[in-house]
Design goal:
Elements (H helix, E strand, L loop, with lengths): L3 E2 L1 H7 L28 E10 L6 H19 L3 E9 L3 H9 L4 H18 L6 E4 L3 H16 L3 E11 L4 E3 L18 E10 L5 H10 L4 E2 L1 H12 L5 E2 L1 E2 L7 E2 L2 E6 L1 H6 L1 H4 L10 H6 L6 E5 L3 H14 L8 E4 L2 E3 L2 E2 L10 H8 L1 H11 L6 E2 L2 H31 L7 H4 L4 H18 L3 H22 L1 H7 L1 H25 L4 H10 L4 H5 L27 E3 L1 H9 L10 E3 L12
Parallel strand pairs: 2-3, 2-13, 3-4, 8-14, 13-14, 15-17
Antiparallel strand pairs: 1-5, 5-6, 5-7, 7-9, 10-12, 11-12, 15-16, 18-19
Helix pairs in contact: 3-4, 6-7, 7-11, 12-13, 13-14, 13-17, 14-17, 14-19, 16-17, 16-19, 17-19, 18-19, 19-20
The structure holds 5'-O-[(L-methionyl)-sulphamoyl]adenosine.
InterPro entries: Anticodon_Met, Met-tRNA_synth, Met-tRNA_synth_2, Methionyl/Leucyl_tRNA_Synth, MetRS_core, Rossmann-like_a/b/a_fold, tRNAsynth_Ia_anticodon-bd
GO molecular function, one term: ATP binding
Family: Belongs to the class-I aminoacyl-tRNA synthetase family.
Length: 589
């Protein structure tokens, strides 16, 4: 059964609404790119507003970690950042899950929305705005927006018949479904629905959308997702229903309280209503003046059509600017399937953070999953990566260096880092890698940005091994003086790593900064300029060394048990965090 509109009824009922104008209101869309903003500009970025049908899983946390890393990087560049996240609380899916949990919808929303906030706190997510779509100030803005679109002649009433996926909250095209009308994302059959609804005249925006994409191809990122969007548009845009007659849990349609506004039409406006201040007048123009258009919508690839087709058309209809960029990342998968609440194959983020800490979780997913592509999770890989990079390459280098400085220089720097590095090629290497990290952060290649920072750590480790300052100290005289300079150089490298890694592992970076003798306030006021060589000065006293990242070890007893078991009954031992750092090498001791 194909989704179809009863057009004769549409024609009759459109008499109730204003006549469609022959051409849509001209959109004032922005064509600037992320890189072309000047420093004073506000950087507004959003995560999707998460459905509160169930508490967050690692897939929801992934977008938010990435968004937080980007927000922190933009703050380092000196931008005023408005980082928006929140929860999407209306619609059939939420009402059904509230009922299944024996709660009334609003109680259910309060509870689950709070679990998102709690997780964000545990993951060190520093958002600026948290919007809930059940907030009355959001409702007021949705209604005002609806009225504008209606006044522009883009809303009419008609019958609709089609196949609906409740988990996607979307009518599906028969062509895109699997056997037995199963939704390809949720692997569950869609249900046949017939409703009398209000429709948004999306088809009117086909040409303007084509123009937006051809004039500003960077609007959709990564570029391979742009092709997908262009194909949808080319295949012909059909009007979509923006109200529900059978769903009570939603914002009533203005002038027709028998219908509620479609959850997507409602939720997308959260990106604008989030901008309002509690003490400000709650209207669309005020909200828009406080930061619209958004610089970047960060979303998963499954909701690209809503953000790159429906949303821009809705904004054009209301005469508002389009966001500057929509970036659709890939999925975290388990055994190749999208991890998700509906499929029940999720990874528990609360457990992961409690076991391994926020830095490890943030670092692993940003470093391991190329931003834009899918990525599979395995605990073995997780432990291997964070141990090798955070505990060894970074943590151990700092620990060894501070140990040598304490033993030989009373934990005090003997010379300015700029003087220490005169004629030392490591400084140039670090500068190049810092630049590589910056350009990759800017282009949202977060994994490559991480890689560049790690390369700085590798370069520091190689320098330490080549110079072997522990040997030089033993030789005394000018050799010992050179060794003392080497330690200053490596600690400056560590300081630069701390700044450059702070968007991704803020807690780890703070620990490094503190051990280098800086205060929390000094850390909190760092900017990207602080990646320049030369902040560590003669006389600066280092703090007591302690591991900045504790190695994760399989518990020894469990490992022994495992060894005793017959081969095929062996289970993996449980990972534990061990409060010890890699030992110094024998030669250094
Ligand atoms: N409520 C809508 C968004 C409205 S935005 C105005 C929604 N919510 S959701 O909770 O289902 O999904 C939120 C985001 O989480 C989406 O971007 C989705 O892609 C992302 N993820 C959900 N599962 C995911 C993975 N397994 N991996 C990565 N991201 C995934 O859609």
């Amino acid at each position: 059964m194909a989704a179809r509109l009863n057009t004769s009824l549409q024609n009759t009922l459109s008499l109730f609404s204003k006549k469609l104008p022959s051409s849509p209101r001209r959109a004032l869309y922005c064509t600037s790119t992320l890189e072309s903003h000047d420093n004073a500009e506000t950087f507004v970025l959003t995560t999707p507003l998460y459905y509160v049908n169930a508490p967050p899983h690692m897939g929801s946390a992934y977008t938010t970690i990435a968004a937080d890393s980007i927000a922190r990087f933009q703050r380092l560049l000196g931008k005023k950042v408005i980082f928006i996240t929140g929860t999407d609380e209306h619609g059939e899916k939420i009402a059904t899950s509230a009922a299944a949990n024996g709660r009334n919808p609003s109680e259910h929303c309060d509870l689950i929305s709070q679990s998102y906030r709690t997780l964000w706190k545990e993951l060190d997510i520093a958002y600026d705005k948290f919007v809930r779509t059940t907030d009355p100030k959001h409702e007021a803005i949705v209604k005002e927006f609806y009225d504008r679109v209606f006044a522009n002649g883009d809303i009419y009433r008609a019958d609709y018949e089609g196949l609906y996926c409740v988990n996607c909250e979307e009518y599906k095209d028969e062509k895109e479904l699997l056997e037995n009308n199963c939704c390809p994302v949720h692997q569950m059959p869609c249900v046949a629905r017939k409703e009398d609804n209000y429709f948004f005249a999306l088809s009117k925006y086909q040409k303007p959308l084509e123009e937006v994409l051809s004039q500003n191809p960077r609007f959709v990122q990564p570029s391979y997702r742009l092709n997908e969007v262009q194909t949808w548009i080319k295949s012909g845009l059909r009007d979509f229903s923006i109200s529900r007659a059978l769903v009570d849990w939603g914002i009533p349609v203005p002038n027709d309280d028998k219908q509620t506004i479609y959850v997507w039409f409602d939720a997308l406006l959260g990106y604008i209503s989030a901008l309002t201040e509690d003490n400000e007048q709650q209207n669309l123009d005020t909200a828009v003046s406080l930061g619209w258009p958004a610089s970047l919508h960060l979303i998963g690839k499954d909701i690209l059509r809503f953000h790159a087709v429906y949303w821009p058309a809705m904004l054009m209809s209301a005469g508002l600017n389009l966001p500057k960029m929509v970036f659709g990342h890939g999925f975290l998968t388990k055994d190749g399937m999208k991890m998700g609440k509906s499929l029940g194959n999720t990874l528990e983020p609360f457990e992961l953070v409690q076991k391994f800490g926020p830095d490890a979780v943030r670092y692993f997913f940003i470093r391991e999953v190329e931003f834009g592509n899918d990525g599979d999770y395995s605990e073995d890989r997780f432990i291997k990566i964070v141990n090798a990079h955070l505990a060894n390459t970074i943590g151990n280098l700092l620990n060894r260096t501070l140990g040598l400085l304490k033993k030989n220089c009373e934990s005090t720097l003997v010379v300015d880092s700029t003087i220490a590095a005169e004629g030392v090629p490591l400084k140039d290497t670090v500068e190049k890698l810092v630049e590589k990290a910056r350009t990759n952060y800017e282009s949202l290649s977060l994994s490559t940005a991480c890689e560049a920072v790690l390369e700085i750590g590798n370069a520091g480790n190689s320098y330490m091994d080549q110079r072997a300052p522990w040997m030089l100290f033993k030789q005394g005289g000018v050799s010992a003086e050179a060794a003392a300079k080497d330690l200053v150089i490596i600690l400056e490298v560590m300081r630069i790593i701390a700044v450059a890694l702070s968007p991704i592992a803020p807690c780890l970076s703070l620990k490094i900064y503190s051990q280098l003798g800086f205060s929390v306030d000094q850390f909190n006021s760092i900017t990207w300029d602080d990646t320049k060589w030369g902040e560590l000065k003669e006389g600066q006293v280092m703090a007591q060394a302690s591991p900045v990242f504790v190695r994760i070890e399989l518990d020894a007893a469990e490992k022994d048990e495992e060894e005793k078991k017959p081969k095929d009954s062996k289970k993996k031992g449980k990972a534990k965090v061990k409060a010890e750092q890699q030992p110094q090498t024998i030669a250094e001791a």
